[in-house]
Design a protein that fits this description.
Layout (H helix, E strand, L loop, with lengths): L1 E5 L6 H12 L2 E4 H11 L2 H11 L6 H13 L7 E4 L5 H13 L6 E6 L2 H9 L1 E4 L5 E3 L19 E2 L6 H15 L3 H5 L4 E5 L4 H16 L1
Parallel strand pairs: 1-3, 1-4, 2-3, 4-8
Antiparallel strand pairs: 5-6, 5-7
Helix pairs in contact: 1-9, 2-3, 2-4, 3-4, 4-5, 6-7
Bound molecules: zinc ion.
The site of zinc ion has 8 residues, from loops.
Length: 218
Amino acid sequence: MNIILLGPPGAGKGTQASRLVDNRGMVQLSTGDMLRAAVKAQTPIGLKAKAVMEAGELVSDEIVSGIIGEALDGMAAETGVIFDGYPRTQAQAHSLDTILADRGRTLDHVIELDVDEDALVERITGRFTCASCGEGYHDMFKTTKVADTCDKCGGHEFKRRPDDNEETVRTRMAEYRAKTAPILPIYEARNIVSRVDGMADMDEVTVAISTILDGADA
Ligand SMILES: [Zn+2]
């Protein structure tokens, strides 16, 4: 079982990916992490990537493909893979087909965590935490019981992350759409794209993803 997991920042992609790793023994392949690992391990491709990066150039698709191939070669054939942050372009999508086919693997599902942009803005911009103990709150969903007083430690100072503002959230959504727009039609044409409501409760999202994965096993 090999899948691509897609979702904008704030959709809970990281949580769902780590649950797939824990519950199903899948391996998450994030190209950024793999690249750093290959450089560190000084694999042949890692050394090539290092030279390119040191020259201040972007790592080519060929290098990225090589790194994914190296990672897959080091894995048992039955280990399922979650691709994260890859592919980003049509060329990479076609490379991925080749990389998988060369190893007798197929891409089984592309799962997109769908979010309602306005609801996501509300969810993210409402977050704040206690400056003393770190307890998390939300303007609408989890307010303090007593105004301006932390339920847990009684602190009166709260902080918000500077990134948790509407403009940043909307910019990230636009970036996400721009990144996935080139590749989604390829997979839609193969009927392997499933959408899950990323605004639902995390456990419900996990169940929905399981249903999709198990449906293909049956
Ligand atoms: Zn507190």
